[in-house]
Protein 1
Amino acid sequence: MTSRSFARRYLVKQKGLGRIFSREPGNLKAIHSYKYSVLVNQKSVSIEPAGVSADQPAGRGVAVSTRKGKPAVNKIANTRNQYILKKGGSRRTAGAVASIVGKRGYRADLLKDSVARSSVILKSQRPSTGRQTAKPRKVRGSKAKTLVHGAEATETEA
């Protein structure tokens, strides 16, 4: 099976979107293009939440996996390097992702996209603060103030 028929499997074409997207696992921006394709490139970067795979414990963090240079043909399980980043905050994780992807010279063209992807994943893992209640509106105008304060005065007297 050719890589072209594999890539066609993941295409997302819809009218009005303006571009063709991809459901390819590991695609950083979910855009159908040679640059982001994991199937075609020898060096590919995949960033996903830690705990997505069966071999990882669930929880907060980011899993960065890169493809090894020249893996053995008969050892498919050892074709990827996996880094699980759980310690520290978002800045430390972003620095580690930048180091793995760009600074070591692996795929410098994907540096910004990979850091952005990791920060979005960490943001989604943050506990929500909940919906804040709206502050009561301030009463404006002298007539409105007398109505409100007059009603409050009668309530306190009763």
Protein 2
Amino acid sequence: MYSETDPHDENTSTKAPQTNPINFSTKFGNDLVQIIVGKEERLFTIHKTLLCNKIPYFSALFNGSFAEAAEKKACFPDDEPGSYDVLFHWVYTGVLPPLTSDNLSAPKHAWNPVAVFSLADRMIIPELMDSVMDAWILGDAVRCEYPGLELTEEIYDTTPEGSASRKYLMMSVFHMLMYHRSDEGMYSTEAIQDAFHENKEFCGDVLTLLRNETKIRPTDPRGICAYNFHVGGVARCGKCNASVREMGEVVGGQNVSGKVSSEYVFKDYTI
């Protein structure tokens, strides 16, 4: 039976059916995997699809022929669970949890940037490595601090030669030596001497930088373009000339794609 409908009738549907652009099952998947971390065997239960789409390392682990794929479980007994708290926060949200507070009475770091950077390096997650460096440098700039020398051993033990974390520490000491007297700033002469004595590689890096940069004005690493600390030196949001302070709104990592190389680029300071 034919029936006329008024095209102006609000009850007459002339629009295409709307679809929900967010599909939880498509994004997160229905399968779960278990990640067990540390000597205390801390358990993380994570959506497999999301994890594997975000981090190729886990895609190879859980979608390949490894035992982890069959058991849907992976163990990392030598790692610190706190780093995985940060890692999985980033996996689910795309940003890092706050690292520092402008409250100087609060602890400097809510999580360990060296450990998270090292984890991201081992799992080959350049976006996360960049985000960690952004948060670390911005936090130091806001608090008017430098990376602590107590981090030297951990940085040199857990990150590769030429890494952004090594270069940030090295350049900070270089800037402090050139601009501050021994009774000023974070690094006393005695503290630097002790750090050099305990880690000859660190000492060699700083001395090489000092000799290579003769008659050149040292740059405060907390104030240069943050992308100088990124993997491949890639500017992921187009702010190639942005200072660290101008980078505040992108700390935490906007996942803008960019070409990534296997080398680190750090301004003109190479060892």
